[in-house]
Q: What sequence folds into this?
């Protein structure tokens, strides 16, 4: 796909662009994935948001062993490894690392990097339920972030700047949603691999270029569809799908499966909701990012997400669910025990549970399971 | 003052006989199934070499994995403390001890007086121990005594990514099938192990002089791989395997001196 | 006529009441599947691991066993059952109990997991079957899942503990609690109240805190009390709260005395017994308050006598060590540490926490309690754990720290390396990082941990000797 190629070459030189922007005085704001960081705030003060979401490689996980024991989520240990080693250049150029604290594994990143490095960490809490007091707490957190961003950049985040940024980000979400919904058709016009590449690209690319890319992709797909596989339709869900962690997707597609929809706590930018930019804009941001977002697995209880997965399975006419999570993320591990029963009761569909510690040694084991599962759900 | 130090590891048993400051003799034998019998045998052997008998020995300290099973020792001390004492006696400028044995590995930080400042050990996972090298060398059909030297001939070390001995074995088999040379694979194995040790030891810190002990210290490839990882020169004592037993003997002498002073 | 459990119960401080309580005791042991063999093993285990020559220790063991019987028989005896879990917020459990007594409602309120640890573990050395049952029912091994949750899960699966009417304080600052309760809800259908806390305290922020955190946690706790009223018809009022505080005051005052006596040289009793006393107050809202104060008070008297006579369980001048906590279920680990010649004179959990501001500006129960939680720190702030270790070392004349972090508790495990470094940097005292599981010692047994602890002890002794010279 032409638009994807353009995006790839933009991303290849992204670091160069960012370094140049820094020289010109612009600030780079890093943040952890999870969908709770309103990029609009970063854009509205002229800074550049960069999601720190690299994964799939065991080397930084191993390096983190000098700073933390192994019993923390693999992706989070990888971030600690990247942060302390300087092996990920993005960590070296951020002026501020904003961390929406969702669960204890993300908290590990915040505490361990704060203690061991000079990176400025800005944590703010994401409550685990959606009552009014929770909304208020989240709103307070992003309000504090706003103040820090203004301090960092010397630029006031006015309502008009914020509105502009909201409009841009809304367009990005809208396009991602439209493209994603196209995959309800049989066969889906775009592969899971390509959709994830787009979604992942949005974490690093310049926002305007990203929106342009999405417009092109959307138009391209409307005109001529390059259908993905005709194979069994799969919902891929789990804790974290990092940039660079493509093993599972590739193996599913190589086995003939078609990933037509994804749902991840971290790694898939939430695109189902848009910010309703009327009234208090900060409250509007909180309403979209916190209240109307389908929450991740660590919410208490996690019912809304489980119901959403079942809805997706039905809406996208799924043949089977693949649950892919990383080691030691207990919220997902525990749910993976009884969710298959729930899924079976509600939809009759089977589920494959996969776990990874970003270890190369797992590849063949994952492949065997995936190939077997695809065969069993093939009609 | 005749004293003895006995170090019963999971793989080998070592004994050292000292007369004052003079090393009379030492012995190294495989531990085998009976820790108690190995302790007796290795001590008798060292005594025989010294032309002495058990009755001549005034104080014995036992150390190592099997230290509690040595019925004839007067006192029991951990191998961490004994390695520090042994290494400091032969290399007073030692700042860090890396000890890689058959079934465990440790990094010991010393203070300016040759005493233990901090330590970290791995005794749960085979991947950082002599066992790892043994298994890999075996798969390649190389004698463990030659593995290190062979690894130094490598021009392009393979990258071994498996963190587990069991999986590294199968990873090696597939590298071999790909046509990678034994030298390159061995170099990769040594590199992976050195990397693991370096990470484990980071919390203790590698300070000069870094001294390498244990059976694996005789492996020249491992010495180089560790030097590359930590960026410091590594010293290997003449008999790296007996440092624990030597330290136990030195501490035995210190105990005797204390007892004489008290009376 | 003799019962198969007479010898054990007498060893554990029971007297004539065995005859009176026989029907209950019979039923409880039957439910727990504990027979004559188990009693024999328990007698050995208790004799080897508890200071049974002290009447106070025997009375504490008795209090725990009575609490175990109360737990196991609660439903059968017509009570409503409320469980709370760890990390628990101190107070709500006690307040619910006090309020229900005022309302003349029979409500059993406790933390069943820690009760099983201290009884099946510390008395019968038979916790493994419960852990295995938990592993087989949704919380498998190899994933660092909380063993306390495995115990609760296993206890329910084996029918040892009753299905509760309500679970409170589910999760607070750990993600595991709520998920484990959701799993149990899926199976048994009972209700859980998720009390949510926000974990965004920045490294270095404590003892400061955002007032918004008090608002949030306070609202959660008020919600807890509202739900308790809804489900049980029990209203937790300020009066009930005050009553709970005054009832527990006597108990915790005695605990404070005990921890002070621990600072004597030589150390007069094992930290195992101090923990036995301390955790009774944490796990139980019933027997801790009825039997606990007398037991601890007797113990204090006996320990005072030892201090006067210069009797200790470790030698005089032994290095004084602060660790995180004694094992809840396996006393042999603490004894192993003592046998290496260390005076395990304090655990972080036994050090009194900082006091909340007084008078408070808050008016609702939930907010007052939340303010208290911010002051204590502990799990809401990772940094507070490091800071409290630092403060304890400085104020308690400590020679070394064993940072025994819980590998399967994420708020603890994330600090595995950090706390050790912090303590050494801020106090100059040696510290080791010791990976442990304070509820399940199968993989972290005394034998497995011995070499590290022994080497640390040797290190500390050498330091002391050098310092003297």
A:
């Amino acid at each position: 796909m032409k638009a994807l190629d353009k995006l790839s070459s933009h991303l290849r030189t992204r670091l160069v662009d960012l370094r140049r922007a820094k020289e010109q005085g612009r600030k780079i704001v890093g943040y952890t994935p999870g969908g709770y960081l309103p990029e609009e705030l970063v854009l509205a003060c002229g800074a550049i948001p960069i999601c720190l979401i690299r994964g799939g490689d065991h080397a930084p996980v191993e390096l983190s062993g000098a700073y933390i024991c192994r019993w923390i989520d693999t992706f989070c240990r990888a971030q600690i490894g990247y942060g302390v080693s300087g092996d990920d250049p993005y960590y070296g150029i951020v002026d501020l690392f904003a961390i929406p604290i969702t669960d204890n594994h993300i908290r590990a990143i915040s505490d361990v990097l704060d203690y061991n490095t000079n990176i400025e960490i800005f944590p703010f809490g994401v409550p685990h339920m959606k009552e009014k007091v929770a909304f208020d707490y989240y709103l307070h957190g992003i309000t504090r972030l706003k103040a820090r961003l203004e301090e960092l950049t010397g630029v006031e985040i006015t309502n008009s700047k914020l509105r502009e940024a909201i409009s841009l980000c809304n367009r990005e979400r809208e396009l991602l949603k439209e493209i994603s919904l196209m995959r309800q058709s049989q066969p889906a016009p775009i592969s899971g691999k390509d959709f994830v590449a787009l979604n992942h690209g949005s974490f690093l690319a310049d926002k305007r270029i990203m929106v342009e890319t999405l417009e092109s992709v959307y138009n391209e797909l409307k005109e001529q569809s390059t259908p993905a596989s005709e194979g069994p339709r799969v919902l891929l869900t789990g804790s974290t799908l990092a940039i660079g962690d493509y093993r599972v997707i590739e193996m599913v597609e190589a086995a003939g499966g078609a990933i037509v929809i994804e749902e991840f706590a971290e790694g898939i930018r939430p695109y189902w909701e848009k910010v309703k930019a009327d009234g208090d804009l900060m409250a509007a941001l909180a309403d979209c990012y916190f209240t109307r977002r389908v929450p991740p697995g660590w919410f208490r209880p996690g019912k809304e997400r489980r119901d959403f997965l079942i809805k997706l399975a039905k809406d996208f006419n799924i043949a089977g669910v693949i649950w892919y999570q990383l080691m030691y993320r207990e919220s997902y591990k525990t749910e993976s025990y009884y969710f298959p029963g729930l899924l079976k009761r509600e939809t009759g569909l089977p589920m494959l549970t996969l776990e990874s510690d970003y270890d190369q040694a797992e590849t063949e084991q994952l492949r065997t399971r995936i190939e077997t599962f695809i065969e069993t759900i093939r009609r | 003052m005749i004293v003895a130090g006995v170090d019963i590891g999971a793989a080998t048993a070592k004994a050292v006989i000292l007369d004052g400051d003079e090393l009379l003799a030492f012995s190294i034998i495989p531990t085998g199934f009976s820790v108690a019998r190995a302790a007796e045998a290795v001590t008798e052997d060292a005594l025989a070499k010294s032309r002495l008998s058990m009755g001549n020995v005034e104080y014995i300290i036992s150390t190592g994995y099997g230290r509690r099973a040595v019925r004839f020792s007067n006192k029991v001390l951990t191998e961490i403390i004994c390695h520090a004492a042994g290494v400091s006696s032969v290399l007073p400028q030692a700042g860090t001890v890396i000890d890689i044995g058959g079934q465990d590995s440790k990094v010991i930080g010393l203070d300016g007086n040759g005493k233990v400042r901090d330590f970290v050990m791995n005794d749960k996972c085979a991947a950082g121990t002599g066992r790892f090298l043994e298994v890999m060398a075996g798969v390649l059909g190389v004698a463990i005594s030659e593995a290190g030297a062979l690894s130094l001939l490598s021009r392009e070390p393979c990258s071994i990514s498996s963190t587990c001995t069991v999986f590294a074995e199968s990873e090696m088999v597939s590298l071999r099938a790909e046509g990678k040379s034994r030298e390159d694979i061995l170099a990769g194995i040594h590199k992976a192990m050195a990397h693991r040790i370096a990470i484990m030891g980071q919390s203790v810190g590698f300070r000069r002089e870094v001294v390498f002990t244990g059976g694996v210290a005789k492996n020249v490839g491992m010495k180089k791989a560790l030097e590359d990882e930590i960026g410091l020169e590594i010293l290997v004592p003449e008999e790296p395997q007996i440092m624990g037993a030597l330290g136990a003997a030195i501490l035995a002498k210190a105990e005797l001196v204390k007892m004489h002073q008290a009376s | 006529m003799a019962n198969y459990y007479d010898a054990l119960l007498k060893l554990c401080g029971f007297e004539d009441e065995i005859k009176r309580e026989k029907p209950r005791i019979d039923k409880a042991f039957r439910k727990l599947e504990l027979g004559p063999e188990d009693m024999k093993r328990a007698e050995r285990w208790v004799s080897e691991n508890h200071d049974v020559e002290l009447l106070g220790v025997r009375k504490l063991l008795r209090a725990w066993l009575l609490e175990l019987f109360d737990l196991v028989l609660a439903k059968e005896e017509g009570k409503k059952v409320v469980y709370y879990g760890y990390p628990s917020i101190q107070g709500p459990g006690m307040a619910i109990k006090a309020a229900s007594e005022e309302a003349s409602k029979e409500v059993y309120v406790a933390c069943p997991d820690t009760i099983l640890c201290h009884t099946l573990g510390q008395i019968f050395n038979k916790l493994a079957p419960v852990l295995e049952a938990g592993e087989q029912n949704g919380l498998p091994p190899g994933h660092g899942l909380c063993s306390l949750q495995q115990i609760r899960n296993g206890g329910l699966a084996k029918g040892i503990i009753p299905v509760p009417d309500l679970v409170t304080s589910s999760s607070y600052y750990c993600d595991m609690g709520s998920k484990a309760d959701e799993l149990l809800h899926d199976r048994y259908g009972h209700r859980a109240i998720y009390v949510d806390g926000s974990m965004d305290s920045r490294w270095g922020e404590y003892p400061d805190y955002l007032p918004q955190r008090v608002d949030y946690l306070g609202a959660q706790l008020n919600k807890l009390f509202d739900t308790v009223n809804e489900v049980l018809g029990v209203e937790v009022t300020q009066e009930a709260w005050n009553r709970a505080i005054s009832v527990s005051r006597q108990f915790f005052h005695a605990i404070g005395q005990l921890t002070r006596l621990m600072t004597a040289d030589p150390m007069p009793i094992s930290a195992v017994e101090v923990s036995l006393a301390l955790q009774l107050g944490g796990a139980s809202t019933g027997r801790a308050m009825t039997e606990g104060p007398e037991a601890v008070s007797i113990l204090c008297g006996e320990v005072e006598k030892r201090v006067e006579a210069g009797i200790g369980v470790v030698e005089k001048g032994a290095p004084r060590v602060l660790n995180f906590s004694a094992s809840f279920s396996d006393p042999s680990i603490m004894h192993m540490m003592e046998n290496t010649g260390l005076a395990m004179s304090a655990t972080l959990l036994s050090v009194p926490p900082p006091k909340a501001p007084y008078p408070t500006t808050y008016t609702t129960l939930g907010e007052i309690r939340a303010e208290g939680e911010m002051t204590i720190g502990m799990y809401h702030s990772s940094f507070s754990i490091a800071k409290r270790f630092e403060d304890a070392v400085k104020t308690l004349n400590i020679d070394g720290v064993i940072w025994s972090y819980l590998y399967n508790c994420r708020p603890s495990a994330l600090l595995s390396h950090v706390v050790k470094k912090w303590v050494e940097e801020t106090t100059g005292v040696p510290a080791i990082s010791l990976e442990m599981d304070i509820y399940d010692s199968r993989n972290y047994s005394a034998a497995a941990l011995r070499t590290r602890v022994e080497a640390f002890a040797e290190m500390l002794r050498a330091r002391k000797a050098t310092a003297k010279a």
Notes: The radius of gyration of chain C is 21 Å. The mean pLDDT of chain C is 94.
